[in-house]
């Protein structure tokens, strides 16, 4: 059992371990007395604690991040959710989590967090290392893409080869253009030789004698 299995149930005090879900509800186990019961979906909402967010003066934070601050500041006296007044409860959260927005978080929610913290502590459920491991895993997945981006300039060599090949093709094209010109000159020369040979053919035939 760990924090990710813990849920709250609307209309029912305490915290529960989610045992199973059904189409019409869920089976949960009470962390206080370990009793198991069925929660009908038509009467109650079952909410995982890890899905709950808390208002701050900046971006919202996950509920477990508030619990982590409460755990880190155990030297600060924890108010009694049943007996402490509103001012002391708000002062406590402001002290351990300066960004905490006590104007948008109801005092009833603050008291609920105090009660839940005590229940989680009693059940040794204040270990949140798995969230840090998830963040590290995400960071490692992003690293290769950054390295590829850095190594991209190395791919310039194929581009140079492409330019060299293009230059060779241009030279071949120039050579091909010159060849027809040489052939044309040879052909013309051959025609000149032929014209020279045809000159004897132009001599007029001898006339027959007319006295016959």
- List the strand order in the largest sheet: 4-3-2-1-5
Order of helices and strands: EEEEEEEHHHHH
In terms of per-residue confidence, which ranges show pLDDT below 50 for 5 or more consecutive residues? 147-151, 186-198, 203-212
> What integer is the average pLDDT?
78
Topology summary:
Elements: E1 6-9, E2 12-22, E3 25-30, E4 36-40, E5 46-48, E6 53-54, E7 61-62, H1 63-72, H2 86-96, H3 107-122, H4 129-151, H5 156-198
Antiparallel strand pairs: 1-2, 1-5, 2-3, 3-4, 6-7
Can you give a write-up of this model?
By secondary structure, the chain is of the alpha+beta class. It contains five helices and seven strands, in the order βββββββααααα. The strands form two sheets. The chain has a five-stranded antiparallel β-sheet with strand order 4-3-2-1-5. A two-stranded antiparallel sheet has the order 6-7. It starts with 5 loop residues before the first strand and ends in a 14-residue tail after the last helix.
List keywords for this structure.
212 residues; alpha+beta; two-stranded antiparallel sheet; globular; disordered C terminus
Describe the structure in brief.
The chain has 212 residues and is of the alpha+beta class. It contains five helices and seven strands; from the N terminus they run E-E-E-E-E-E-E-H-H-H-H-H.
